[in-house]
Task: structure prediction
Amino acid sequence: MKLKVGVFFGGKACEHEISCISANQVLHALDQDKYEVIPVYIAKNQDLYIGQALFDLGNYADLGALCQKLTKVSLCKDDERTYLRPLKEGLFKSAPTYLDVAFLVMHGTNGEDGVLQGMMEMMNLPYTSSAVLGAALGQDKVIQKEVLTFEGLPLVEWTYFTRLEYKEDPVAVKDKIAKITYPVILKPANLGSSIGIEVAHDQDEIDLKIRETLVYDNKILVEKYLSDFKEINCSIIGDDEEYKVSVLEEVLKEDEILSFENKYTQNGKGSKTKQPLKGSKGMASAMRKVPAAISEDMTKTIKELALKAYKALNAYGCARIDFMVDAEDNIYLTELNTIPGSLAFYLWDKVGIDFAKECDLLIENAIKRYRKKEKMAFSFDTNILSTFKGGR
Result:
């Protein structure tokens, strides 16, 4: 009997469309001989939908029209199974669809930050990706930096501030930023896909750049900007026992930073669009060198640092760890992404793991972790309230 795999994607995050692209790649990579694949689209208002129209990326040009072709469902648990149950039952009732595994292809808020993972835990459903803690650490760039700093991993100079801090004392915030020395790069703490990132070259620009980043988040990470660097990325698939490390890539950029346009639209410098091009291949579209043109020693060091970060941040499943290498060959860890765009399949293909095999590994990983958790004691059969006699 085939495993029923629900592929969850979409959501209310700014990376909604990127999630749709990544998920569509997964939907067509999963082996139909092994799995019954059920796409589960989470609309921007967070309603859940299923339907065959979700397999065709061309249908996503008009999301409202797409939803009209789909069946709205709820996720519910009955005895030992988790079901997708239609909210509206017609004359001929549709049987609810149960799931064996949830394949999470969510980016950003409520999908990559531990919220959806917590829901899967409540539903007792095996799921790919990091668990609640690892997902939360991966999403919040500031807390992630705190953990990586504690672990002694190499980072560029950094600080952060909140919206309230800037509102109450903007001078103090700007003084804190100035200690890093300009130029600096500002990043919304809880977004990905390079959305909302700004570079401030001097004190004259900082107020404008702060206001622009605060559009996207209440907490802003500030890092020293390196003008001459290589971006080197690595992917890891694993759990707390076994790990596989991919080849390294060097991602090429046309703009001052590796922008949203560089990653997804192929329009590069000067582009005004904020939507992926029709037919975009997600992160697979970005220009890159694979493997990265760096020394064997540097390759070894970066892989070791990536694995150390993966373990420190309690990551599971597929993660991508991003690095910068400056002109003096100093290595700096930038961040870990718990559900990277396109699941970094373009890195695994180079070590003999095609996208279908990568999906197999992630599903196997999810089931293995679920079975290990089932053997742990989280509650007791006894009920101490059975002796309660009333009163205080």
Q: What stands out?
A: The domain at 3-127 is CATH 3.40.50.20 (Rossmann fold). Residues 266-278 have pLDDT under 50 and may be disordered. The chain has twelve helices and 17 strands.
